[in-house]
Amino acid sequence: IKMSFKRGGAKKRRDALEPELLAALHRLGVQAWQLHGTGLPDLLCYFRGRFFALEVKSPGGKLTEAQRPAPWPIVRSLEDACDVLGIASVEVC
Questions:
Q1: Which tens digits make up the pLDDT trace of 68-79?
Q2: What CA–CA distance (Å, rounded) separates 8 from 6?
Q3: What is the chain's mean pLDDT, rounded?
């Protein structure tokens, strides 16, 4: 599997929600990196000593064949990401 870590944008098309979500996660103190590669999650996040892989989809966005068997959560909003990362709504989400 070919994989690369990118702090900014990847060369291939990213989900429309991803830049806004990435910026919000950084504001919340989450270290997050964009991943690029067939079948890989969109984001690798590090928060409170733990790593999390997230697949980002805009509401209504569809999974590709390579993404369907993925063991990581699919997030469609900042609230979804906060739930996965264990960030209480009181903290900002």
A1: 888 999 999 999
A2: 5
A3: 84
What are the Cα distances from residue 83, in Å, to 3, 36, 65, 73, 89?
26, 24, 25, 10, 8
> Full-prediction pTM beyond 0.70?
yes
Total Cβ atoms within 10 A of residue 47: 18
Angle at 65 (CA atoms; ends 60, 70), nearest 5 degrees: 85
Dihedral sign, Cα of residue 38, residue 72, residue 18, residue 3: negative
As given in the structure block, the two tokens for residue 43 are 């984001």
